[in-house]
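Summary of Year 1 activities. Much of the first year was spent building the evaluation harness for sequence design. The harness presents a backbone, in tokenized form, and records the residue chosen at every position. We chose the following record to illustrate the format because it has been used consistently in internal testing since the harness was completed.
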């Protein structure tokens, strides 16, 4: 995750003090992950991002699954 510091997705969500909606738009997911919308779309296209659904032509990501996935990615990258 590019350049937003070493804080976790959960810490960013707490700091942003937003309501905890169960579904996130791609824009919200990219903000939470600290990456561009294009990166989120890339994860979706590659089948890497869990909890993704398409509703009415728009992509949504389940917040809890994104946060869990980001924690796993962060843990793996800190070990490497």
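For this record, the design step produced the sequence shown next.
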């Amino acid at each position: 995750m590019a350049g937003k510091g070493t804080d976790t997705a959960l810490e960013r969500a707490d700091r942003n003090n937003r309501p905890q909606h169960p579904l996130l738009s791609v824009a919200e997911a990219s903000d939470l992950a600290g990456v561009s919308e294009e990166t989120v779309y890339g994860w979706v296209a590659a089948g890497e991002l869990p909890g993704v659904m398409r509703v009415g032509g728009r992509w949504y990501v389940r917040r809890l699954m994104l946060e869990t996935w980001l924690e796993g990615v962060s843990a793996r990258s800190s070990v490497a």
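The two ends are 14 Å apart (CA to CA). Quantitative recovery figures across the full test set are reported in Table 2.
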